[in-house]
Automatic annotation (TrEMBL):
<feature type="compositionally biased region" description="Low complexity">
    <location>
        <begin position="19"/>
        <end position="37"/>
    </location>
</feature>
<feature type="region of interest" description="Disordered">
    <location>
        <begin position="1"/>
        <end position="76"/>
    </location>
</feature>
<feature type="compositionally biased region" description="Low complexity">
    <location>
        <begin position="65"/>
        <end position="76"/>
    </location>
</feature>
<feature type="domain" description="SseB protein N-terminal">
    <location>
        <begin position="225"/>
        <end position="322"/>
    </location>
</feature>
<dbReference type="Pfam" id="PF07179">
    <property type="entry name" value="SseB"/>
</dbReference>
<dbReference type="InterPro" id="IPR009839">
    <property type="entry name" value="SseB_N"/>
</dbReference>
<protein>
    <recommendedName>
        <fullName>SseB protein N-terminal domain-containing protein</fullName>
    </recommendedName>
</protein>
Amino acid sequence: MALFSRGKRTPDEQPESVAPSDADAADTDAAPGAAADQSVPHVGISLSTYGRATTPAQQPPSPSPQAAEHAAGSGAQASDNVLLRDALAKLPAEPTGRDVMAVARQLLQGHLFLRVKGDARALLAAGENLPLAMLTAGDKQFAVAYSGLGALRASVLADGDTGTSAMAQPVASVLRYVLAGTYAGLVLDPASGQSRAVIPRELLERIVEEAGGTEFPIKRLVSGERTPQTATEIGRALVDAKLWVSVGQTEQGPGISEARANDGKRLLEIFSHPLEVIALDRGTQPVPMTPAQLAAVLITEPGLDGVLIDPAGPWISLTRDNLAPVLALAPEG
């Protein structure tokens, strides 16, 4: 980890690079970059149907404690998933695989709205299964979710079925539901014109596999409400997290991206998921880095002032003090 370029940079400008150790130069074949060139499936918009996936035992996601309050008439209490909504709004008329992946990275935080046939609050109170909206294309079924209530209302206007209600659910619950069934993928905001996306099942499976689950703890904390304790909480969460760095070619060979803040501080760029690296579109590759490897880099490179997490945004920088739990992982001596 000895090769650092020294030009002054800000976190949102072109990064600098450092040469990785052998442990950093892990196999990059698992990164989802190749999927960016795949075709995007088309799902025709027709009348929504309701029910469960074709697997008889499949159940809708377990409602959160607040689900009943967010359902039906009180659904407005749950705010839109702004990051996801804005990513969908940027889609071109004919999205590429990379466009869909840009949406997918903002799917890894917050909550989604599900459309329920009937009064979700009453169904929950009665302990009934929730008939959730789905779309069909040929012999395939797609789960449906919404970034906000406006997108859900657009579906109601499109199909005229006013006997439905909304239920907000954590993204983790929705993804578990989709992948536990036989759905071919997840359709987001289906009646929102070009601001809609189809996330194929294969991409969802790969995203979850690379993240080690559906919780996405770092993305959730970085994207959530900021408090004076947020940086400290993220520092603790990094100890058990799956992390990636961005590796590209420099004149000296492979290098790991770093950023230079306006005040001159040098920050190693760390990513919560390979999709975050791909979103920067730099031509670099996501490479796994364990928390222990991160600790070793910080110990051997005292000139690094901290880390910059998910520079494509939302991002956060952590100081060495914030990273104390990670530094404690470094071997003694």
